[in-house]
Write a structure and sequence with these properties.
By secondary structure, the chain is α/β, with parallel strands linked by helices. It contains 23 helices and 26 strands. It has a 9-stranded mixed β-sheet with strand order 14-13-12-15-16-17-22-26-25, with helices on both faces. Strand 3, helix 6 and strand 4 form a beta-alpha-beta unit. Helix 16 runs parallel beside helix 17.
Length: 655
């Protein structure tokens, strides 16, 4: 179909009619050429003329209908689409040969062969000419017609790069009411005095070069066609643009496409995530699809940042039934609305429930019989869990145990538990509870493998660091503070963290679940740690402000349980490599299942009775590497602690 306005299309049946009439006229033109070149005797009788034109009309209609060339969106046509037009005309000529043989057998073979060859050339040329005219009329109409966005400012932009992705952006924006491409910007001068799709190619070497190009082209912004281009230019072009007041935009990446639908506007401003992101992770999609296709999958914590993204990626893998389990009513409702809109063919069921309630879990397992379980439900905020340790134990330790036990009871094939880098040498309650959950799940899996516990479930644990833009994380926090005019608060000028995008983390989780060969704890290569102070200042600059001038950066001190530096997950000393260069198997101490179960029972009893001192002491005995920092629980790390009693209430006041 051919689009004339932002709301209406030229019907495909009309395009089919135009193509057919054009083809008949082209065939008539062939007859006219033959008449003037060879004369009427050479062309034949009026009967042959009628057969020729009738056959041309019928053959064109049949060929164009079955090759579907009339359904191509003309303004986005490429060489591939134009080749389909040629194939359609070839089909027309073949049908004409058949038709002429049936209805007019006395023709001169050489003459008609020449006419058919000429008919092919003229028909193809005529169809392409008609499409060019239609495209020209479309642009005239679209420019003359007042836009519904006429009140919005149209921004002149330079597209970064001269590759295929950059060229495709120009095609997408030809009729945009918001952006007008005035040229392409290349980082070197390899190509000089050249046009790309009719637009000039500019180049730059330094900030003065960018300033000159912006002035010459009158561009107000730079548009990156690919997020890795923005990442590579974060220390050069992006600071130039910030200094010159040029706006920066980016086309959506594959992570922002779900089920063929765009999750965000087509073009958006550059975010800090675009600069922190890394090269696209290579995963074996065929193996992952084969692993989950046709299965019932349960995701706990399905309304959270990781859980909801897991659900989105599972939606594209052909799962039989997706069960979304979460205790947050409004977040789960929002996820449900999103999935109803984006995945109308997906069979999914949202369930309100809490992993701390075995009866509710039993109902879900009994009713839906999940074959694969992703356990993402957990409490994750370090300071809050430091102030509410019993709730951390109940959710992270007991909740994980409840899910694992139900997996065994109802013979789930696999349970994948989402853990954290804070479980490595934990310095806070949250990290220790995640390590305790790992211990229980791992010991249960090993007991099943040894035949000590009856069951068939395979247990896989995945550890990774902070994810960019997750609920309650530092980036949304900084964004809110910048929007309020500051100050932006950083705990310590030297604090560093590892970051990974949410889609990246979820892809690695699914890859780890696929390559697992037994009860294993997988850790991910988190890349290079990022200084949070630098992150805050970059975000202020991206928002168009000057750090410490327009918006202040203030340091508040480390919070309870917080580390200055997070642990490096993947080192040669503590991991075993896998076939995937970003995924490693952690070397960890094995625990006996009976001991892990007994410890879990005791922790649950102490947490239920809010016996904080005894509970924390037990946690430290079970996980001896758990050394508290900046916390009231440091007292229990001493060899001879003072006989002091802590309660949940006094703990909150102290913290």
């Amino acid at each position: 179909m051919f689009k004339f306005t932002s709301e209406k299309y030229l019907r495909s049946t009309i395009v089919l009619g135009i193509d057919t009439v054009t083809s008949i006229l082209a065939s008539a033109l062939v007859l006219l050429f033959g008449y003037y070149i060879k004369g009427n005797n050479a062309i034949g009788s009026s009967h042959m003329l009628g057969v020729w034109l009738t056959t041309a009309g019928i053959a064109s209609l049949i060929a164009f209908y079955f090759t579907r060339v009339y359904q191509l969106v003309i303004r986005f046509s490429t060489i591939r689409e134009l080749s389909r037009v040629c194939l359609a005309v070839i089909a027309k000529e073949i049908l004409m040969v058949i038709g002429m043989g049936i209805f007019e057998g006395s023709y001169s073979f050489r003459l008609v062969s020449a006419m058919l060859a000429l008919d092919f050339l003229i028909t193809v040329g005529a169809l392409l000419l008609v499409r060019v005219l239609m495209l020209w009329i479309y642009y005239l109409v679209s420019r003359a017609r007042p836009s519904e966005h006429a009140e919005d400012e149209t921004i002149d932009v330079l597209v970064y790069g001269i590759g295929a992705k950059s060229a495709s952006v120009l095609t997408r924006l030809r009729t945009s009411p918001h952006y007008r491409v005035v040229g392409f910007l290349a980082p070197d001068d390899v190509i000089k005095d050249t046009l790309l799709m009719g637009k000039p190619i500019y180049y730059f070497h330094d900030e003065e070069g960018v300033k000159f190009v912006a002035s010459k082209s009158r561009a107000k912004g730079i548009l990156f066609a690919y997020h890795l281009d923005a990442h590579e230019e974060q220390d050069r072009l992006i600071p130039y643009c910030q200094n010159l007041g040029l706006k920066m935009f980016i086309a959506p990446s594959i992570d922002e496409m779900t089920d063929g639908k765009m999750a965000t506007p087509t073009i958006r401003k550059i975010k800090i995530e675009d600069l922190l992101g890394r090269s696209e992770i290579k995963i074996n999609m065929k193996e992952i699809r084969d692993n989950f296709q046709g299965k019932t999958v349960l995701v706990t914590g399905a309304a959270g940042s990781i859980g909801s993204e897991l659900c989105r990626q599972l939606a594209g893998l052909g799962v039989k039934h997706l069960v979304m389990f979460d205790n947050g009513e409004t977040p789960l409702h929002n996820v449900r609305l999103e999935f109803e809109d984006k995945y109308p063919n997906l069979y999914f069921t949202p369930v309100i429930g809490d992993v701390r309630q075995p009866a509710r879990l039993d109902y879900v397992f009994r009713k839906y019989r999940p074959q694969v379980v992703f356990h993402a439900a957990a409490y994750k905020h370090v300071p809050l869990m430091e102030e509410n340790p019993c709730e951390a134990v109940m959710a992270n330790v007991q909740g994980s145990r409840n899910v694992a036990d139900k997996c065994v009871e109802y013979e789930a094939e696999k349970m994948v538990m989402i853990s954290t880098d804070k479980a490595v040498n934990p310095t806070n309650i949250m990290g220790c509870t995640k390590r305790l959950a790992e211990i229980y799940v791992q010991s249960l899996g090993l007991a099943i493998e040894k035949g000590l516990v009856k069951g068939k479930t395979q247990f896989v644990t995945t550890r990774f660091g902070n994810v960019l833009g997750s609920n309650g994380s530092v980036i949304p926090r900084f964004t809110e503070q910048i929007e309020r005019g500051g100050p932006v608060t950083v705990t310590d000028p030297q604090i560093r963290r590892f970051f990974m995008t949410i889609p990246e983390a979820c892809r690695l989780v699914m890859e780890a679940a696929t390559i697992a060969t037994g009860t294993q704890i997988f850790v991910f290569d988190m890349g290079t740690p990022i200084k949070i102070d630098d992150l805050a200042r970059r975000m202020i600059s991206l928002a168009g402000f000057v750090p410490d001038k327009d918006i202040a950066v203030e340091y508040t001190g480390l919070r309870p349980g917080e580390k200055l530096y997070e642990e490096v997950l993947a080192t040669k000393e503590n991991t075993i490599p896998t076939d995937h260069d970003r995924i490693f198997v952690a070397k960890v101490r094995d625990y006996e299942y009976e001991n892990a179960r007994a410890t879990s029972d005791e922790l649950y009893d102490l947490a239920s009775r809010v016996e904080i001192p005894d509970m924390v002491k037990l946690m430290k005995r079970t996980v001896p590497e758990f050394i508290s920092r900046h916390s009231v629980f440091e007292i229990y790390d001493r060899k001879d602690p003072k006989p002091e009693s802590l309660t949940e209430e006094s703990d909150n006041r102290t913290a």
